[in-house]
Amino acid sequence: MSGQEYEGNNGINQERTGFAQNRGETEREDTLTNRQGHPISDNQNVRTVGNRGPMTLENYHFLEKITHFDRERIPERVVHARGAGAHGYFETYGKVGDEPVSKYTRAKLFQVEGKRTPVFVRFSTVVHGSGSPETLRDPRGFAVKFYTEEGNWDLVGNNLKIFFIRDPLKFPDMVHAFKPDPVSNVPGPVGMFDFVSRSPEATHMITFLWSPWGIPANYRQMQGSGVNTYKWVNADGVGVLVKYHWEPLKQGIKNLTQEEANKIQGMNDSHATQDLYEAIERGEYPEWELCVQIMSDDDHPELEFDPLDPTKLWPEDQFPFLKVGKMVLNRNPENYYNEVEQAAFGTGVLVDGLDFSDDKLLQGRTFSYSDTQRHRVGTNYLQLPINAPKKRVATNQRGGQMSYFVDKAPGQSPHVDYEPSMTDGLVEASQTAKPHQPHYDANLVRQKLDRTLDFKQAGDTYRAFEDWERNELINNLVGALSQCDVRIQEKMVEHFTYADEDYGRRVREGLEQAKKGSDGDSREQAVEDASRMGHEADPY
Q: In 107-146, which positions are buried (b, 16+ CB within 10 angstroms) versus exposed (e)?
C-alpha cells in the first residue's frame, strides 16, 4: 500500500483491511457493529433469563464491550481515579435492628456483638482523572474492604444511593459521554446531557447530582451506599434482598453549593484528601453506621418499581433502615501508592452468607471490576498486602506477571497444582450450611424491566429538597444545559416536567432567560479572560 493510504485515522482504520465499504443488506454506513463486524441491534439491554435477570455469560457483545472498556486507561483507573483512603475497623451489633442477625444471614462477621473486623476504605471521585480537583460535581466512590475470618468482602458503592442506568451494557457509553471530549480533551456537560436525554432512567440521579448533593463537602461528611441490591442468606439457605447504607455518625452530612466549591477549588484542589488525613492524625476518627434495608426475595408486584432497579430508592417507610454495626477509620496509610492506589475492589468479592441478586447492573459490575484489576494492577494483584485477605490462602493458581509466592498449603505437594488429586493436593471445603438455590423459569431475552417508573422518584426527590437546594439545582442545570444543543435542552425539560411540573417549568424559564441575557459561556469566557488578563513578560 502507498503511504497516502495510511494518512489520518480513517485511513489507518479502514484502508488496511480494504473492506471498509462492505456491509450487509440491512446495514447503513452509520450502523453500529462490534469489532467482529457484527451489526448490533440492541445496545441497551443485556441478555437475561426473563427481563429481571440473571444475566448469562454468553453475552458476547457485552463482554467484548466491557473488557475493552476496562483496558482504556494505563495505568490510571478508568473511573474512580482520584482517591483517598484509610484503615480502621467494623464493629458489629450482632443484630439487625432489634432482631438477631442470624435470622437473615449466616455471615460470621455479623454474628457476635462487639466483634471487630479490620477494614480499608477508599473514597474517590468517579469520572475525573487522578490529578483533578476534589470539588468537581461528580458522584463519590465509597468502597470498603472487610478483612473477615472467611476471607475478604468488598462493599463497593457511592455516596448517592442510586445510579444513572440499570443495564450494564450502557456503562461504557455512559462513562464515555461523561469524560472529556475525545477530540479536544476538554471536559464539559454536553456529552453527559446528550446521553441522559436519551436515557430517561437517569433523571433521578441527575436530580441528585446537580443539586448540592453532587458536591459533598469532604469524604468524612458524606453518606455511602452499596447502590445495587444484594442478598443475605441464612443457615437454612433462605435469601432476602438487601440494600446497604453507610450513615455518618458524629461528623454529620455536609454538601457544597457550586459557588462555595469554586471558592474552595481556588485555594486547594485536594481539600477532601487533606481533610481526611488530618482529621485522623488529630485523633478525630470519622465513624459511619452500617444500615440495611431488607425485602423478601421476589419481584414485589405491589410496588410501582422493580426492587432490582438501581435507579430507584426503596421507600424508607416501607423498608426501614436497620442498624447492623459501625465503622471507625483510625489509621492513615503509610504509603499512598502501595495502599490507596493499588487497592483493588470488586463487587463479586463476597463471603458465605452474602450473595448476589439478579440486579443486571450488579452482575455486569461483578465481571468488570475484577477484570479491570487484573489489567490495571496485574494478574497477581491479590498477593499485594493491601488486597490480600488476612487469613490463609491455598489455590492452584500459578504464574502470571509479578507472582511473589506460591499459594501453597502446608504439606501440599509442589508437584500437584490441580484438583482433584489422589496424592498431596488441595481438597474441596465441606459444605456445612444449606446452599441458596433460587429458581428460574423464563426465556432468554433482551428486554428492560417492566416497571421502569423513570420519573416519579425524581419528582419526589425534587419536592423533598429544601428551597435553597431546589434553587441551586435549577441554577446548576440551567448553567450546564445552556451549553447544549436545543434538542438536548428540550428533551431534558420534558424529562424534568414528567418528574414535576414546577421542576420542568423552572428549568425551561431559566434556559429562556439565559438565552436572552447571556454574555456567553462562562467556560469560554475564562479562556478569553486568561489571554486578555495575562501579563506580558520578556523572554529569559
A: bbbbeeeebebebbbbbbbbbbeeebbbbbbbbbbbbbbb
Which residues, in sequence order, are bridge partners of residue 325?
92, 290
For 335-354, the pLDDT digits (tens) are: 999 999 999 999 999 999 99
Query: Which residue bears the cell 490480600?
Result: 388
pLDDT of residue 16: 42
Query: Among 3.40.50.740, 3.40.50.1000, 2.40.180.10, 2.60.40.420, what is the CATH number of 83-198+215-383?
Result: 2.40.180.10
Active-site residue among 61, 80, 128, 271? 80
What tens digit of pLDDT does each residue of 13-24 get? 444 445 556 666
- Catalytic site includes residue 396: no
Is 369 annotated to bind ligand? yes
* Residue with grid cell 481539600, as numbered in its chain: 271
- At 392, the pLDDT band (50, 70, 90 cuts) reads confident
Whole-number average pLDDT of the chain: 91
Q: How many CB atoms lie within 10 A of CB 484?
A: 21
Outline which parts of the chain fall under CATH 2.40.180.10.
Answer: 83-198+215-383
Q: Is 59 a catalytic residue?
A: no
The single residue of 59, 158, 159, 332 carrying the catalytic annotation is 158
Q: For cell 439457605, name the residue.
A: 237
Q: Distance between CA atoms of 487 and 505, rounded to whole angstroms?
A: 16
| 521: pLDDT strictly greater than 80 | no
